[in-house]
């Protein structure tokens, strides 16, 4: 089944940046673009006209249709559909993501440099969506997708399946853009008490800690290299925390791809620390990919 690229729109500067990014990606992949806006009627007794649900809904539909028309003209041949989804924002966007190749959302940059202000809505959508969610900051420019900029993806875990979904998304995106994949694996020295005769033997057989990490990365990349033989790959192995190592190469990225490890707490869903850190500090768009 062919899924569209879906983008959440609300008329803000950041959602317009997300719309442009999603349209360019849809053209590259030969997919339809679906523009959605979550809406819930809010009565206002001070303004009678706003107290009419049909009037409010009509204004929302017109705004979404206008944005879709502009982007369709800008990208000739792109098929664009629109939907106004009545209900809570999180619920509507999570549902929209379920039938999409990816969900694209806008996020405000913070500070004099770059980054994201990830509100509760964005965090909940990322934590609950079953498809990849891409965050695009306000002011994102197509020039950031120029030749030479890489698709940076984090790889972690001992089992190649641990990062399969994130790696797959990165390779598919790189193939569509003619870009290089930089696969990043960060590692740290394990605590002394974690060693055992069995683990020491495995480390000796692999030639030490760093060669063992390189071997793990190569094993994870092998099926994707076979599937996408024309995509150049850079293996990046560095000692340090995963978030810090990923952010150290963010300047060369046109897109950062990280896996999601969502967990539920008493105050709601939370995403993993690596995704959280990258989302708040990376200057490029960030894709958060749930496990397969």
Which key features would you list for this structure?
ten-stranded mixed β-sheet; Universal_stress_UspA; Universal stress protein; single chain; 9 helices; Rossmann fold; UspA; alpha/beta; two-stranded antiparallel sheet; 40% helix; 292 residues
Overview of this protein structure:
With 292 residues, the protein is α/β, with parallel strands linked by helices. It has two domains: 1-140, HUPs (Rossmann fold); 146-292, 3-Layer(aba) Sandwich (Rossmann fold). Helices cover 40% and strands 22% of the residues. It contains nine helices and twelve strands. It has helices at residues 13-29, 53-74, 89-98, 120-128, 164-177, 197-206, 209-227, 242-248, 273-281, and strands at 5-8, 33-39, 80-86, 102-107, 133-137, 150-154, 181-187, 233-239, 253-259, 263-265, 268-270, 286-289. Strands 3-2-1-4-5-12-9-6-7-8 form a ten-stranded mixed beta sheet, with helices on both faces. A two-stranded antiparallel ribbon has the order 10-11. β10 and β11 (268-270) form a beta hairpin. The protein is elongated. The two termini are 17 Å apart.
Secondary-structure map:
Elements: E1 5-8, H1 13-29, E2 33-39, H2 53-74, E3 80-86, H3 89-98, E4 102-107, H4 120-128, E5 133-137, E6 150-154, H5 164-177, E7 181-187, H6 197-206, H7 209-227, E8 233-239, H8 242-248, E9 253-259, E10 263-265, E11 268-270, H9 273-281, E12 286-289
Parallel strand pairs: 1-2, 1-4, 2-3, 4-5, 6-7, 6-9, 7-8, 9-12
Antiparallel strand pairs: 5-12, 10-11
